[in-house]
Amino acid sequence: MCISNKKKIITKINSMKKHLLFLIATLMMLLASSVVNAQVNPNPDCNITITHPTRAKAVISGGGTICYGTTTTITITVSGGKAPWKLTIVDENGTKEVTVTDVGNNGSEVYTYTTDALTANITYNSGNISLTDDNSCTNGLVTGSADVEINDPAKPTGDAAQSFCSIDTPTIADLSVNETTTIKWYSRWSNILCYSDGGWL
C-alpha cells in the first residue's frame, strides 16, 4: 500500500474519533441537564392539604310497649359525613329507604320513623338500620337501640256451648267467659263487625 493511502485512512480515523467524542460529550450534557431539572421544585411554596370528612353517625332511641297490629315511632339522630343522609331500615314488612336532609344546615338532624303495624317484638339497632351519606360512604356508625314490645294479652276462654232461654231475651252480655276485663265480640276473627253488649243472641 502506498504512503498516500495510509495517510488518508489515518485522517479518516481521526475524524471519526472527533465525531464520536463530540457525540459522547453532547449525550453526557443532556443527561446532566435531565438530572438537574428533575431535582428542581418548580413550585417550592405550593402546599396541598387533604381533609378527610368525619364519619356519618346515627343514634337510635325510643321504643316501648304497643298493642298488637299497631304502629309506633322511634327517633334516629344523624350527623357527620355529608348531608343528605340515607337510612336503610329493615322492618317487619320489608326494607325501606328514607332520605334525611339537613334542614337546619348545622350538620345534624333528628328523624322520626313510623314503624310498620307490628305483630311481634322487635329491636331496632345496627342489625336492621344502616346509614349512608352523600359521599356514598356506607360505613356510617349506628349506635343505640329501640325495643318495641307487643302487648298481646291471652285470649279469653269459656264454654264453647252455652244455653239460654229465648223467653229471657239473652244478649251478648250474657255470654260467660273466664276474663275479668271488658270483652268485645266480633262476627269473625278479622274484626269485621263488632257486636254491642245489648245485641240479641
What report would you give on this structure?
By secondary structure, the protein is of the alpha+beta class. It has one helix and eleven strands, in the order H-E-E-E-E-E-E-E-E-E-E-E. It has one helix at residues 3-39, and strands at 57-67, 73-79, 85-91, 94-100, 108-114, 122-124, 129-132, 141-144, 146-151, 185-186, 194-195. The strands form three sheets. Strands 1, 2, 5, 6, 8 and 9 form a six-stranded mixed sheet that branches. Strands 4-3-7 form a three-stranded antiparallel sheet, with no helix packed on it. Strands 10-11 form a two-stranded antiparallel ribbon.
Concise structural overview:
With 201 residues, this protein is of the alpha+beta class. It is built from 1 helix and 11 strands, in the order H-E-E-E-E-E-E-E-E-E-E-E.
CATH architecture designation of the largest domain: Sandwich
DSSP strand count: 11
The amount of beta strand, in percent, is: 25-35%
Coarse shape: rod-shaped
Radius of gyration, CA atoms, in whole angstroms:
43 Å
Do you know the CATH topology of the largest domain? Immunoglobulin-like
Query: Which stretches are poorly predicted, pLDDT < 50 over at least 5 residues?
Result: none
Average pLDDT over all residues: 81
Number of H/I helices: 1
Q: What's the domain count?
A: 3
Order of secondary-structure elements: HEEEEEEEEEEE
Keywords:
single chain, 201 residues, 1 helix, 30% strand, alpha+beta, three-stranded antiparallel sheet, Immunoglobulin-like
List the helices and strands and how they pair.
Blueprint: H1 3-39, E1 57-67, E2 73-79, E3 85-91, E4 94-100, E5 108-114, E6 122-124, E7 129-132, E8 141-144, E9 146-151, E10 185-186, E11 194-195
Parallel strand pairs: 1-8, 1-9
Antiparallel strand pairs: 1-2, 2-5, 3-4, 3-7, 6-9, 10-11
